[in-house]
Design a protein that fits this description.
By secondary structure, this protein is of the alpha/beta class. The chain has a single domain, classed as 3-Layer(aba) Sandwich (UDP-N-acetylmuramoyl-L-alanine:D-glutamate ligase), CATH 3.40.1190.20. 50% of the residues lie in helices and 15% in strands. It has helices spanning 6-22, 35-45, 58-64, 77-93, 110-118, 129-135, 155-165, 202-214, 218-238, 243-256, 259-265; strands at 2-3, 25-29, 48-50, 67-71, 97-100, 124-128, 168-172, 176-180, 183-187, 267-268. Strands 3-2-4-5-6-7-8-9 form an eight-stranded mixed beta sheet, sandwiched between helices. Strands 1-10 form a two-stranded antiparallel sheet. Strand 8 (176-180) and strand 9 (183-187) form a beta hairpin. The longest helix has 21 residues, at 218-238.
Length: 269
């Protein structure tokens, strides 16, 4: 393990400072299970979350927002309509957007929707290994929202998916893998307690949307978000007794993060 290369850690700190100073408006079309955690994570980071998933409103809001997250965790009929509307508006306005293809694979509603959305030029696709493999056409997905494949097994599929979307692909796991345009980063920050709290992965998609709003290089934005999110998890885990106290400590750590902490703790493989 080596410290994060100076250009990348410098870019991470610069992007984090931009999020803090500019407070990007992050439009989240996300699943009903994680709305609170997602909003709180964006707020703790320094952004401004908004959960607008009503057809007729989602499009205009996406066009005005700084960044958009589309999370397919609970894709109701109305939310699917709002999603298509928001993505079309985001593309038209040049709003960067993040696709989180939750539990895609064999499920018959969200899977074709995810494939269609992946063709609409997301800046970042973020998912676990099984979701990324399935979206790239290589498998049937995991066990619901849980991965049954490891991150390295998804590497070649992430490369193919990034080439198809033209953006970055972030594979979340014990080591986060970020792929884009011939570049790769393996972020070793983070803690297993993230998997024991509701929204631990989904909120990262919104954080990536916040970073994409202030950093035009999707690879840098996805990597910076993973480092910042992981460092906050590392800090939170040090004083947590379990998943409940960790969730609170994580938000506090995300809000209290400093550039010095990012520089001292951020690591990649």
């Amino acid at each position: 393990m080596t410290r994060t290369p100076p250009p990348l850690i410098d870019s991470t700190c610069a992007a984090w400072e931009e999020v803090r100073s500019r407070s990007p408006l992050v439009h989240c079309i996300t699943n009903s299970v994680v709305i609170g955690m997602t909003a709180n994570a964006v707020l703790a980071l320094g952004g401004a979350p908004a959960m607008v998933d009503i057809p007729g409103e989602a499009g205009p809001f996406a066009a005005a927002a700084s960044g958009l997250l589309v999370n397919l965790g609970t894709p109701t009929t109305e939310q699917r309509q709002a999603t298509r509307e928001a993505v079309a508006a985001a593309k038209g306005a040049g709003t960067p957007w993040v696709l989180d293809p939750v539990a895609v694979g064999s499920l018959p509603v969200r899977t074709p929707l995810a494939h269609d959305l992946a063709s609409q030029s997301p800046a970042i696709v973020r998912g676990n290994a099984s979701e990324i493999i399935a979206l790239a056409g290589g498998g049937a997905g995991g066990r619901g929202v849980d991965a049954t494949d490891d991150v390295e097994a998804a590497a070649s599929f992430a490369v193919a998916l990034a080439a198809r979307t033209g953006g970055a692909v972030a594979v979340s796991g014990p080591v986060d893998l970020i792929i884009a345009d011939g570049r790769s980063a393996r972020v070793r920050n983070g803690h297993a307690l993230l998997t024991r709290m509701t929204g631990g992965g989904c909120a990262l998609g919104a954080v990536m949307a916040a970073f994409a709003a202030v950093e035009s290089d999707a690879f840098v934005a996805a990597t910076a978000a993973s480092v910042v999110y992981g460092v906050a998890a590392d800090v939170a885990a040090e004083g947590a007794a379990g998943p409940g106290s960790f969730a609170v400590a994580f938000l506090d750590a995300l809000a209290g993060l400093t550039a010095d902490a990012i520089l001292a703790r951020g690591v990649v493989a």
